[in-house]
Amino acid sequence: MKTQIKVKLLHPSAKLPAYGTQFSAGADLYACLEGDSLTILPGETQFVHTGLSIEIPDGLVGLVYARSGLACKRGLAPANKVGVVDSDYRGEIVVALHNHSSSPQTIQNGDRIAQIVFTPYYAADFILSDSLNDTARGEGGFGSTGSK
User: What is the DSSP letter of 68?
Assistant: First the structure.
């Protein structure tokens, strides 16, 4: 299924998001840096600009995830784990990249830094209640169903 997403380039070197393969769920987001590169020290978080803003249709949300290779091989992943881009947001997409590795990691201008997935969502009407339906699980959480 496809939908159209309007993209506004905010910087001359900004790149449109792009899918790596025909069936990729996430479109790559690219670094749009003021200089040629940015080094992120171990344990540090840097805000990496993409140089673009987007218009997400009502009923969809953009979820910004790590790129698996960047996260697993170099330890760079969004600091907030999953960024949420609401359909009414029109500002620049900025990725807070955190370096989980033990060595400095350098991002070059134009590098793929994250991926964005568009998905429908439900908005809830919260209803105050004194009771909830019982289930077999009940209040069990944090490993209550076992480890195997």
Answer: H
